[in-house]
Amino acid sequence: MLNAAFLQGILGASSLVLGALVGVFWQPRKTFSAAIMAFGSGTLLSVIAFEITIPIHRQSGFLPLLFGFLAGGILFTGITHYIDQKGGFLRKPASSRRYLIEHRQEQVSDVLNRLAQIEVMKTLPLNERQAIAPFIKPIYIQPGEVLCQEGTPGEYFYMIVEGEAQVRRDQKVLNTMRAGEVFGEMSLLTGEPRSATVIAQTPMRLYQLHQRHFNDVLSWSPHLAWALSRALARRLRFSTDSRVAVEKNLDRWRQKLIDKVELDLLLTEDPAILEGLVKHSAPVAIVVGTLIDNIPEAAVIGMNVGEHNFGWSFLLAVFISNFPEALSSASGMKQAGTGRIQILALWVAVVLLSGFCAVAGYSLGSTMPYLFVAVAKALAGGAILAMLASTMMPEAYELGGSSVVFSTILGFLLGFFVSSSYI
User: Fold this and answer.
1) What is the pLDDT of residue 198?
2) CA dihedral defined by 31, 34, 39, 44, rounded to 10 degrees?
3) Which of 93, 17, 12 minimizes the C-alpha distance to 343?
4) What is the C-alpha separation between 87 and 285, in angstroms, rounded?
5) CB atoms within 10 A of CB 47
6) Which residue stretches of 86-171 are H helix?
């Protein structure tokens, strides 16, 4: 029976290698991945209901189900969150997006706190600062570095968070700028070359806003437009050669900006942020996270070996659900720079470890009292449901839309049809 448990555990996880092969050498259409994911979700839901929940309820009642499912969900959620923080977030699109959202929330929170100290941002409503924050890029500058060069085109607007910078024109020092001040906006507003050179005097931390984002922000933030107008007017004290022209432009900009105010902004993912998150991923953590995803399934396969009511529907559901998971994970690992041989070797290792998990499940099921085994099965069922709710089903719907409804129904009916032969 140990050999049977090992072989069935490997069989259920073997689609991980198939999915990894596809992810390494070919990327299928999203609708195809969504259909498989939804079909696997449907079959897993069916076998959880008919091969785990009903038998346990018949023999042990409702309490083992309640305790096991809740404990399984809590345990699975806690462990996967820890794995994600250690670099395993890239194993699935859903966990990648969840990590990205959390990362962005932390980043935005820090930016918002610091924006409140910037001269032109103090008077902005919170909702406008929140909308601006995702476009801001923090940069760090060493003393002596040139931030703006007189006579060159301007591409960025800068906000000083920490440090000091010197403003020069024709080798003459005009001003020293400190934390809370801004510069670079005049060139972006006029389209003319930089009117002065700005050089860091101390180590500096700045927020950088690209011209394309600067223009968008101004179009829907009249408060920022007015704040920049006041800042420019004050700066005229240090430069009188173009004062009349600037004052005329200020009136024109002010009216134009107010006429163009928009209330909504469509935020898009910043490729630079995504690239940075990929670099923080860890292949080992990805594999460990995937193994955690498969332990409950392999354990149930092992515990069911030798039982008369065990059906192939559970094995089929695990096989189908593992394929798209490995496909997306292998694609993510490939983006992170992991070699093809290493990716495939890691997934083969996961398949073998799943076999040993099935053996452990069989040993547990054959030696422990049934009540203990019932709770263990319920715990595994809760973990599988947590995995379905947090990753597979949301991913399937996002990739395939409403069409995944039919794939899920067909998967559920197939699981029921096969399971009904053993009920």
Assistant:
1) 93
2) 180
3) 17
4) 6
5) 29
6) 93-115, 126-132
- Residues constituting the chain: 423
Q: Can you tell me whether residue 174 is helix, strand or coil?
A: strand
**pTM over the 0.85 mark:** no
pLDDT of residue 263 exceeding 50, the answer is no
**pLDDT value of position 298:** 84
Query: What pLDDT is attached to residue 271?
Result: 45
Contact 201, 147 (CB under 8 A): no
Instruction: Please state the separation of Cα 145 from the chain's center in Å.
Output: 34
Residue ranges of domains in the chain: 2-101+281-419, 118-271
pLDDT at 210 over 50: yes
Calpha distance 389→342 (Å, rounded) = 30
Find residue 176's DSSP bridge partners.
Answer: 166
- Expressed in angstroms, the distance from the first to the final Cα of the chain is 22
Just give the CATH number of 118-271.
2.60.120.10
Residue 259 confidence (pLDDT) above 50: no
Using CB atoms within 10 Å of the CB of residue 258, give its burial: 0 to 12 exposed, 13 to 18 middle, 19+ buried.
exposed
Q: Per-residue DSSP letters for 379-406?
A: HHHHHHHHHIIIIIHHHHHHHHGGGHHH
Q: Which ranges of 116-221 does DSSP label H, i.e. alpha helix?
A: 126-132, 185-190, 211-220
In angstroms and rounded to an integer, the radius of gyration of the C-alpha atoms of the chain is 29
Which residue, among 126, 169, 163, 129, has the nearest Cα to 148 in the 3D structure?
169
* Residues 6 or more apart whose Cβ sits within 8 Å of residue 75: 379, 383
What number of other Cβ atoms are within 10 A of residue 152's Cβ?
A: 12
Crossing angle, helix 404-419 and helix 312-335, to 10 degrees?
140
Task: Inform me whether the pLDDT recorded for 260 exceeds 80.
Answer: no
Work out the pLDDT band at 166, boundaries 50, 70, 90: very high
C-alpha pair distances (Å), 419 with each of 54, 288, 294, 416, 422 = 11, 31, 21, 5, 6
